[in-house]
Amino acid sequence: MNTAGFPEVVPNAVPAMMPDGATVGMAMPTTITPGVMGTVGMSPMMPPTQGPVNTDQNYNPENLKDKILNTFGGDDPVIMAFSKLSLDNIKETLFLLIRGSVVDKLPEIRKLTLHQINLTLQEVNMNPTRIRIILEALESAIERNILTRREVCECLKDLLNTDIESLSLELLNFFDKMITPADYKICHEIFINCLQETSKLPSILNGTYHRMSKKIKTMLVKLLDRKNLVVPPICCYADIMVAFNKPNVFPHWTVSELLNDYVATFNSLTDLFNIDNSEHFRPVVRHSLYAHSSWKLDPHTLTYNTVNPQFWVLRFPGPYGKPQLDLMMYTLRQVGCKELIFTIMLGLRHGKQTVCPELEKVFLRLLKETCREAEAKDSNALQRMKVWERLGGELSHFIYANAVNIKTFCESVYREAKQQQTMPLFQRHRDFIMWSLNRCVNFGLKVIKLKTRELIFIGDMIRLLYPEQSPLPVPDMSSPLATVYLSAAMLWTMFATRTSDNPGIHTSPPPALIEHINFLVMPNHNFTLNDYTACVCLDYINNFLINVAGPEGTANKPIKFFLDSIFLNNMEYYLPGNVAVPNAIRPLPLELLDSLTAHAKMNFLIALNSRIQHYSKMITPQEMQVKYNHQLQLTPALIETYSRLLSYSEIHFLSMKMMLNLFSLPLNSPNAHKVAVSLLEMCTYRMQYLKTSQLKLQILTHLQTIANNVPPSTPPHPQIHYLVESFTIKAILSLNYNDLFEISKIYTPMQNTGKVLSTTSVELNKVFVLAAARAVVISRNQMSQNQWLTPFFETMLSSTPAVREWSCYTQSHFPPSIQNFCNTQDQMSHNLPENISMCVTNEFARTQQAAPNQDFAKHFIENDTNCVFLCVILRKYMESQTLPNYTLKVVNVWTPAMLKKQIRNLIQFVVYMLQGNMGNIAPQNMFNRIASVLHDFIYQYSIFPIDTFILISCLQKYSEQGYNIAYYLVYTLIVKKPALKERVDYFVKHAWPNFWQQNGEHSWSKFHSVYHERFPEHGYFLQGSNTIYLPVFYSNICLRFLPVLDVLIHRLIETSQRNTIRTMLVDILNTFGRLYSFHDSPVTYLHNTLYYYDNVLSTDKEILKRLLVARLLEYQFLQPLEKFPRFAEYLLATSDEASEKNSNFINYRELLADFTDVIASKQNHELYSVDWKYNEFSNPVAYRLYIIAIQIMCIPIPTTDVNRAHGEILSEHRTNIGIQLIEVVLGSKAMINDYANTLGLIFSALPLSFSVAIFNKISSVIRDKNNFYETEAHDMKVPKIHWNNSAQNLLIIVHSFFQHCKADKLGGIQEFLNSNIKFLVMESQVLYILKLVSPFIRHIIQDRTHTRNPILSSLLSCLYQIIFNLLSETTVSNPDLFVDYMYYNKYIFIGDELKPLIERHLNFIPKDIAAKLKILAYN
């Protein structure tokens, strides 16, 4: 609907009098111009065929204006000298002139004719009689179908902009006659012009203005008449809102009541699209299954909004239409909220001038609330410091992004501090306020480049907040609070110091700060890592210097101290692989880093980055000696400190950029290789710091670009390759649906998808397919076409065709869109096991028959096209227990891709051999011998790593018997053989998962070195020489095995219906379950596993599910099983009887109450004492939501009839759980608003089978007519509820459900409506359904992953069918509400797509309603 240029409103008009008292129709003398007319005195009723009609298509009517003026008897615009013709004859003459100019003429000539008439009206604009005659002639032309209403109105509408009242009045009279239902678009244009004319009316009316106002009001009444509809109501409503919904713009008093009353008639429609209880709904930050798009706000008003302003033409009364300050406050309290607020809720863009004043008000309110909460709750100063640190960090980010203006914010704080009511509160919390402002002001001055003089008023605020006349003592420097207490002094000295852009504060400092200032300006401080003196000095220095990252000078003494503490040590320390580095193993403590301002952290990070870059570029130790007076090395303390700096949200934009710059350094020196492997280790094993998927994707893209374009002459170090693969697997497995969809938008063209896909590794691409399948299913998009995945599949098939080969067990869990990708291709690889076995036999025979001195290395290097070398040496090793002497030469020339191909063929060969097709040895004996050989290859000779072998084994396709053999082989290598089990046992016993809390003697580095001494790992074939190892800070087989174990567990679950494989899975979980305490996202992995394999794991006894959940949660840092002891008893029960006894482990009311407390951000809740920077979740709400979802998915199926299908039993069980949750909420009278929000969140994290309860409950409500009242005709200005409280409470729950869930849940509505359509016979029932669904229609349009029409069209057509059924069978009390509803959908959502449906039903509904809906059927 185009609302551009909508005018405003004008008054009524009365017929003007002719000059000298003449009236229309009187004969008056005039002069006739020859040739203009035919015979003098022709009848005014002359047939249209008479007269001069020029059919020449080249006819040019440029002199039409002169002919018209001559017809009037002269060109004087004021004094009329009429001919002897009557006025009727003059009008007929004008008609013939017009007719002759337009009949059978080209559109351009018709347009020029109307332009000449426009000019004529401007010429005679002071003579109402002439104007009226011309307009009457035009009216005759319209009545005789010579001209159309549209082209005449288009020609004349711009004349309304004239200041000549007489012309405007006559035009209004003419437009009044044009109002007809025959052409609603013309009527709409007239309505717009009437609105525009109202802006010209003076407040005091007299003469012509009075007549104009009356005419405008008469026209508006006719245009807004709902009984005789001439304009779609929603169009008029939108025009009024656009014209007058602005500050200090109001309709004229003559029409204001009319327009206000008309707008008020849409209140009932607005209520249908209003979300009930919206003020109690709260989002979850960084919840991948969540409908974030439903929280879009207008950045200028903080009211609910969408991308397209037309979506919210409706003006919402009540909480839903007001600024959502509480919502913003809640969201800002959540860690990691920046992306949700900045990008999704407010739709702002980084680097643009997008200051949001309302956001500044929210931060000010949050500052005051933080002060009040600190007084209301029993928390110590260190706990309060964490809260203020988070507030300052979030504020700094929004300042950097230009969403908050630091100057106006500080002015607001100062104004608030001067208020009598808030001054005592601010004085009690002044130190923390000053600390937060110091962090932000410092950031604004140094990064945003704000002038210091613009913030000099902060000095007055400091004086206001520190009124004491005696000096405050210098704080204890051993406490992190020292930086808090000294912040005011730091700010004062900064603003008091005169600079080129700062005149300085001319008054003496507050007496209270004298000692603090003296301490700061002391020339010499002793720095240690046991106190915070260095932090205080660094924060202080940063207030004066733009960059203190240089290597020399006294100004950067604190940074130099920090750098030396993590770089230098006189003693040597040996990393795994005998790599010597300085004995700097203690990273800077987190408490110390927390106390630094954002700019201090930035400078420290810049300094670190600078040294690492220098180190990467230096070729020899001598260069480093000259530059730094010592041999610069990458130390454990440096890498751990660097990774800790990545966790701070306020400098995330910088850290991400610098990290990517380091990854881009060329690998042209040994030092560059060391930097690359160190960064890769940090990203791979400290992934908790990489909170945003954007950073993971950028690193992944860069690494795949390197891996896919490796020059054969200079391949990267093998350690780099292993780390690239390990990071890639972990990064891909961590991607959710939103991440994958974002990748598809960036890399849609086929040639660009290779940036995230491997061109050489089948396994990495298969992991991508698994991640995509899991993401699609968990995001409930499995029934969608998911066409955005097609470019990825095409790219994978072009480079790694084997990616289409999947076991039937794995493929059965794929969504249809990915199953089609697998099914459309040939399933068997050309490398069949039979072919591999034949090649091995031939090559083995060749080596057996050859002369002793024959060089087989060259043969296998040049001619091993079938990649069977590993198979051959496996057979030789089984016979001789030694490897051939040419093994080293062959293995050393393999690229990673060649090694993987060898392993694939080796696995297929071994499985084929164990199936009994070779040799006469007993199967079990042969199996043990082969397992022992593979064990030696992995651990004794290091030909290939165990994690690579297992990953390839999991993703291969075998015969039915082959799966048992392959999985049992893997099981033997990792469980029955002791090597890996010993390593894992030692690792989980001595390592500490909370690495961010490790300092000093309990450092990770010390433990890791001891571990590698006990269990050395080799990146090369062990018999190789001149082995040079790169630094190893975090990597070991236990951590590398974790992502492979993720894949292995899923493959075993898929085939767990086989008893042997189920037994293997149980043993693997018992053996390696504790390793999941070191997993980056164990709770998310567990939730996704239960969700994706819901049907497989939900058996009658659920033994496997209980074991899986118990082992993955048992050793987690937050100890969820201790919080829920009854759940733990159920999981850890050792017998079926015990598990059945504890199966009712959930009290739904307690669960909802506890989760509601977490959502309410009650700071005394134990989860709010956790530092969420280092957790897989960003905030306690997301964490607790996943734990609750896991518990609910673990509720066992009760003993039921064994004759019923498992799917039917499971569906009924899940529905019963959902209904119980709904009943608890419905019964919680006083808490229903908060509980409804909680329940909606819980349903958003559960499989669709639980959501069926929602639709079942709605069905039971709408089928009971006792829940609904008979409707009566009422004023549409006042919305009414036509159902009882139980139906209203359920409506609130459903609205919460749809608000929190993605648009895919709306797909279930159509099936629900179709099954209940025959029960919707009351008007109140239909209104209830419309109220239920309508507020969330916009979600379908907002959802980025769906095409608009199919889902939206089918849903609205179903709703329209319900409305038409009601209108055709019942006399409704408020038909205009349904009329408005359909017009709103047409112009806002659906357009003309439902036109055939509407046309089909118009003949079956009452004629008065059908007449109002006819416009819907127009093109």
Give your account of this protein's structure:
By secondary structure, the protein is an all-alpha fold. It is 57% helix and 1% strand. It is built from 68 helices and 2 strands. A two-stranded antiparallel sheet has the order 1-2. Strand 1 (572-575) and strand 2 (579-582) form a beta hairpin. Helix 15 packs parallel to helix 18, helix 18 (430-446) packs across helix 21 (487-496) and helix 52 packs across helix 54. It is globular. The two termini are 14 Å apart. Mean pLDDT is 80; it is low at 1-57, 75-84, 306-311 and 546-554.
Helix content: 55-70%
Percentage beta strand = under 5%
Mean pLDDT: 80
Q: With helices defined by DSSP (H or I, 4 residues minimum), what is the helix count?
A: 68
Q: How would you characterize the largest beta sheet?
A: 2 strands, antiparallel
What structural class is derived from the secondary structure elements?
A: mainly alpha
Low-pLDDT sequence parts: 1-57, 75-84, 306-311, 546-554
Distance between the termini: 14 Å
The gyration radius over C-alpha positions equals 40 Å
Total strands: the figure is 2
